[in-house]
């Protein structure tokens, strides 16, 4: 289980436990509803912060993967271009190979 899911489960469990504790406490209904509302707002705020952090982490990882992919593409094109030029400069022209125009 990922740490994000574990943390979310703990937070939801704590919120449910707090709500049950308030519901079972011997207080007036209006006071109980006020406490439940406050706990719900607090829990939602905490979950929103965790969600925002999760989304920032995902965005950062996505950006890193895209940068790595771009770098790999550039390196591959460069090696292909270098190999093509090496064959061309060494005089190893094989007329049976298709002509290619490699552009970077």
Automatic annotation (TrEMBL):
Pfam families: YtxH. Residues 83-96 have a biased composition (Basic and acidic residues). The chain crosses the membrane at residues 6-25. Keywords: Membrane, Transmembrane, Transmembrane helix. It comes from the Bacteria. InterPro entries: YtxH. Residues 83-104 are annotated as: Disordered. This is Gas vesicle protein.
